[in-house]
């Protein structure tokens, strides 16, 4: 999934300031190929990342709520969100914040799983669902998943597309290239913010 999000951003591309929301432990950074001056990883709590990642001084960590980002309008050249919007109470507010903190002509990249699509459910059934059942905690895993993924793909997609309706945007489906939530596991939505 992370590779799919970064596929269109080659090493030759440069973004001065990059914000990643919902960074968890910094897993996404390993897939970023483009150049940057500063890369800020945020989550509700300060992400715990490998100290070597922070050693060069170009990568920083911080705490931020995606629905109320503590940054000025147009602060970032690129904003990245991976698998975040299905967790928040208000995806519309989160999408508005992603757009607000992105400068004119900046890029917003949002990775969204197609939950509850067939391909997404099948992938989950043969990975985390199977492990949970083997450990005897299948019922608990199902409940946590249901509570954690409180927003479904169609709703999130509609809200994101509305927020970026005046911007140049694309949606890429994975693993197949044709549109459809049932046969794809996730989508990458990208927008170039118009001033």
Task: Give an overview in words.
The protein has one domain (2-116, 150-192): Rossmann fold (3-Layer(aba) Sandwich). Helix content is 29%, strand content 28%. It has helices at 2-6, 51-54, 91-100, 118-125, 128-134, 138-148, 153-163; strands at residues 14-21, 35-43, 59-63, 76-82, 102-113, 168-174, 186-192. It has a 7-stranded mixed sheet with strand order 3-2-1-4-5-7-6. The model has no long low-confidence stretch (mean pLDDT 94).
Summarize the model shown.
With 195 residues, the protein is α/β, with parallel strands linked by helices. The protein contains 7 helices and 7 strands; from the N terminus they run αββαββαβααααββ. It has a single domain, classed as Vaccinia Virus protein VP39 (Rossmann fold).
Helix-and-strand structural type: alpha/beta
Order of helices and strands: HEEHEEHEHHHHEE
Number of helices, where a helix is a run of at least 4 consecutive DSSP H or I residues: 7
Q: Give the overall form.
A: globular
Question: How large, in whole angstroms, is the Cα Rg?
Answer: 17 Å
CATH superfamily: Vaccinia Virus protein VP39
Which assembly state applies to the chains in this document? single chain
CATH fold title: Rossmann fold
Number of domains: 1
**Cross-sheet strand order for the largest sheet:** 3-2-1-4-5-7-6
Distance between the termini: 30 Å
């Amino acid at each position: 999934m992370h590779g799919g999000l970064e596929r269109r951003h080659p090493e030759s591309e440069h973004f001065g300031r990059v914000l990643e929301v919902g960074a968890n432990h910094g897993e996404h950074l390993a897939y970023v190929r483009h150049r940057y001056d500063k890369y800020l990883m945020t989550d509700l709590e300060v992400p715990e990342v490998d100290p070597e990642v922070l050693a060069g001084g170009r990568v920083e960590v911080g705490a931020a709520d995606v629905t109320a980002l503590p940054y000025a309008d147009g602060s970032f050249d690129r904003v990245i969100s991976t698998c975040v919007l299905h967790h928040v109470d208000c995806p519309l507010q989160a999408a508005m914040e992603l757009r607000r903190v992105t400068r004119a002509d900046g890029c917003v990249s949002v990775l969204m799983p197609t939950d509850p699509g067939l391909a997404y459910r099948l992938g989950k059934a043969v990975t985390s669902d199977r492990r949970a059942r083997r450990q005897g905690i299948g019922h608990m895993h199902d409940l946590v998943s249901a509570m954690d993924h409180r927003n479904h793909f169609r709703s999130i997609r509609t809200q994101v597309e509305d927020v970026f309706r005046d911007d140049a945007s694309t949606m890429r489906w994975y693993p197949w290239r044709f549109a459809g939530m049932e046969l794809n596991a996730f989508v990458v939505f990208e927008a170039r913010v118009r001033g």
